[in-house]
């Protein structure tokens, strides 16, 4: 079905691997205007076509690969694309976003998205080329790591590829999908591909992406790049030190997960910090296509230049395991990417398993501070050998088998990202309410406002956080669905705020004002989109979307799209039986004060009722009929 909107190719292909049939999927422009792209368009397809209760690793699960309207347009940091399905890790909505080059080449091949059903009777990969689709034999690639598999699929083709590794083939529940060196890490999309005997996809073509207002769009992009390059966060701090710049900051503020989240400060934090990485190991910066931020690290390993570690793995395979060996973490990062496993999940799983061993609940040979057996364990997980077979199931299932539920760091079955929520309670609320589980991005990246950013909200202040979390969840969701990297949201904090730490009094005043703006935030969230017809200079995303697609777009419509998609994901989860009881964190975070400080607890009992109210959900966390109709989600009432 051809789209009347620009920015999209207008075509989504529907592939049934069981029968080998290929057809076009009819996607209405009304859905494009409501959900923009990426994870939200994918969720709408899953809502319409996926039967509730199916086995996530069975042939009836549906995999959706979806680009966004800004993907491949040249907008800053817009090489993003999404993979979605029912998650084998959580049983709810699963989606994972990446900046590899496959999404751009998929649109150049003439497709906005790919739907994959069924299961092939042998290993296959999918080739998409200038509007044509071919299902090809992948027998020779089965067993290959993610890098070798991509090279094998591309051969002499100039295009983009994505692939799973051995972990996906062996149905490790947190298996990832890799494009170039960028990973779809979260929620086990690699396992879904493996369950379908799908090794990967390759896309190439020369189709152009038409824009509604090409000249105006070019001007906006030029200003946007200048904004990002001139901002202290995206133009200086992160390019210089990468995402790991936060590690020392978080440790100083008692917010760095250490020894399975039992502590918030690591005594050897500097050894695994972004500063040390830059000073000792960095060869050069790298980044995704069209990204001016260049946060990626390039380091040397066995005589080759490879992707260096980012903050999440430096914490979760470092401080969270009581390990300060940077060289070992660089090696593990490479091994995990090649095998195709989520670094966030595995760092949590190993930390949890180590504490199980420490407490005498499971004799597995893992110890805090012990690094010499980690590589072997990683490989055992990918191939489901020995203790690796249990570890491949994830933290939630490990806790159900061996105990330790109170210190199993997850929500909804998704392992927790690398931020200690007891030192940032809004971030903790985000973990508990994010639809895909304990995710720092889907939950709203509140840690930036509470601890790691330049001018913070009071991190332990409870009353202000529900409104801020809802606003940030809506905003980041819309940015992702539109096609940009979430790091582009950092310009939402004015550059002047980064100078405030040099003036403690001014910083204190700003922190006080930000913390006590919650009544204004709460009021703004209740305004209809038509009352928010504004364009914010530090948030160019809505204007770029309007100029690219031609659809009406402003701040109000943009955040409403985020709200709409987030709520649809909630409805998907409810349909799968994931309800209010799943808006939860383990007792370690709600009942065990960090460092003995009674204020350092995530008081979900105090925050959830207000969060639900601001979202237009009832006391059980179910969106009301009024809310669903207001958001244009009335179809879910009978869906």
Can you describe what's shown?
The protein is α+β, with helices and mostly antiparallel strands. Helix content is 39%, strand content 12%. It has 26 helices and 17 strands. The strands form 5 sheets. A 6-stranded mixed sheet has the order 2-1-6-3-4-5, with helices on both faces. A hairpin with a 2-residue loop joins strand 10 (177-179) and strand 11. Helix 12 (326-339) runs parallel beside helix 14 and helix 17 crosses helix 19 (465-482). The longest helix has 21 residues, at 555-575. The two termini are 23 Å apart. The relative contact order is 0.12. The model has no long low-confidence stretch (mean pLDDT 94).
Largest sheet: 6 strands, mixed
Shape: globular
Q: What fraction strand? A: 5-15%
Instruction: Please mark out the parts with pLDDT under 50 across 5 or more consecutive residues, or reply none.
Output: none
Provide mean pLDDT, rounded. Answer: 94
Total strands: the figure is: 17
Helix-strand category: alpha+beta
Q: How far apart lie the N and C ends?
A: 23 Å
Radius of gyration: 23 Å
The amount of helix comes to: 25-40%
**Sheet with the most strands: spatial strand order:** 2-1-6-3-4-5
């Amino acid at each position: 079905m051809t789209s009347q909107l620009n920015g999209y190719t207008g075509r989504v292909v529907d592939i049934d691997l069981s029968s080998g049939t290929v057809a076009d999927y009819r996607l209405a422009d009304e859905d494009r205007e409501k959900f923009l792209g990426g994870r939200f368009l994918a969720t709408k397809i899953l809502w319409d076509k996926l039967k509730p209760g199916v086995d996530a690793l069975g042939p009836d699960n549906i995999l959706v690969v979806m680009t966004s309207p800004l993907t491949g347009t040249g907008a800053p940091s817009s090489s993003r694309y999404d993979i979605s399905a029912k998650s084998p890790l959580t049983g709810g909505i699963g989606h994972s976003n990446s900046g590899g080059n496959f999404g751009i080449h998929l649109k150049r091949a003439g497709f906005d998205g790919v739907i994959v059903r069924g299961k092939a009777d042998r290993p296959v990969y999918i080739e998409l080329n200038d509007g044509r689709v071919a299902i090809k034999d992948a027998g020779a690639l089965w067993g290959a790591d993610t890098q070798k598999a991509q090279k094998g699929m591309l051969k002499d083709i100039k295009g983009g590829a994505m692939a799973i590794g051995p972990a996906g083939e062996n149905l490790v529940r947190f298996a990832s999908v890799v494009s170039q060196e960028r990973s779809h890490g979260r929620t086990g999309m690699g396992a879904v591909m493996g369950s379908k005997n799908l090794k990967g996809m390759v896309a190439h073509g020369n189709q152009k992406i038409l824009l509604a207002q090409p000249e105006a769009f070019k001007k906006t992009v030029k200003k946007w790049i200048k904004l990002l390059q001139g901002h202290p966060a995206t133009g200086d701090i992160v390019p210089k030190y990468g995402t790991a710049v936060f590690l020392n900051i978080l440790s100083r503020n008692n917010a760095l997960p250490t020894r399975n989240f039992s502590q918030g400060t690591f005594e050897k934090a500097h050894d695994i910090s972004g500063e040390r990485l830059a000073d000792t190991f960095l060869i050069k910066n790298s980044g995704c296509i069209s990204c001016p931020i260049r946060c990626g690290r390039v380091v040397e390993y066995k005589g080759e230049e490879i992707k260096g570690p980012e903050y999440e793995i430096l914490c979760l395979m470092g401080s969270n395991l009581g390990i300060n060996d940077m060289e070992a973490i660089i090696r593990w990062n490479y091994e995990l990417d090649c095998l195709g496993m989520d670094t966030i999940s595995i760092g949590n799983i190993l930390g949890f398993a180590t504490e199980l061993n420490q407490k005498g609940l499971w004799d597995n040979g893992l110890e805090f501070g012990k690094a010499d057996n980690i590589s072997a364990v990683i490989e055992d997980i990918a191939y489901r050998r020995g203790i690796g077979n249990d570890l491949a199931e994830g933290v939630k299932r490990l806790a159900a088998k061996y105990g330790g539920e109170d210190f199993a760091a997850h929500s909804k079955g998704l392992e927790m990202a690398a931020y200690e929520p007891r030192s940032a309670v809004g971030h903790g609320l985000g973990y508990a309410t994010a639809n895909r589980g304990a995710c720092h991005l889907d939950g709203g990246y509140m840690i930036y406002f509470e601890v790691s950013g330049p001018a913070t909200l009071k991190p332990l202040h409870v009353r202000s956080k529900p409104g801020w979390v809802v606003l940030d969840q809506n905003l980041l969701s819309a940015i992702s669905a539109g096609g940009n990297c979430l790091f582009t949201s950092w310009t939402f904090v004015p550059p002047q705020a980064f100078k405030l730490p040099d003036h403690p009094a001014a910083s204190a005043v700003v922190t006080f004002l930000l913390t006590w703006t919650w009544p204004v935030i709460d009021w703004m969230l209740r305004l209809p989109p038509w009352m928010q017809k504004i364009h914010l200079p530090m948030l160019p995303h809505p204007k770029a979307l309007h100029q690219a697609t031609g659809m009406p777009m402003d701040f109000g419509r943009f955040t409403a799209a985020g709200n709409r998609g987030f709520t649809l994901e909630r409805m998907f989860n409810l349909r799968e039986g994931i309800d209010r009881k799943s808006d939860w964190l383990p007792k370690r975070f709600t009942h065990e004060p960090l460092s003995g400080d009674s204020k350092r607890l995530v008081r979900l009992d105090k925050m959830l009722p207000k969060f639900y109210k601001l979202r237009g959900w009832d006391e059980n966390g179910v969106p009301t009929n009024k809310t669903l109709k207001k958001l244009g989600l009335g179809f879910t009432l009978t869906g």
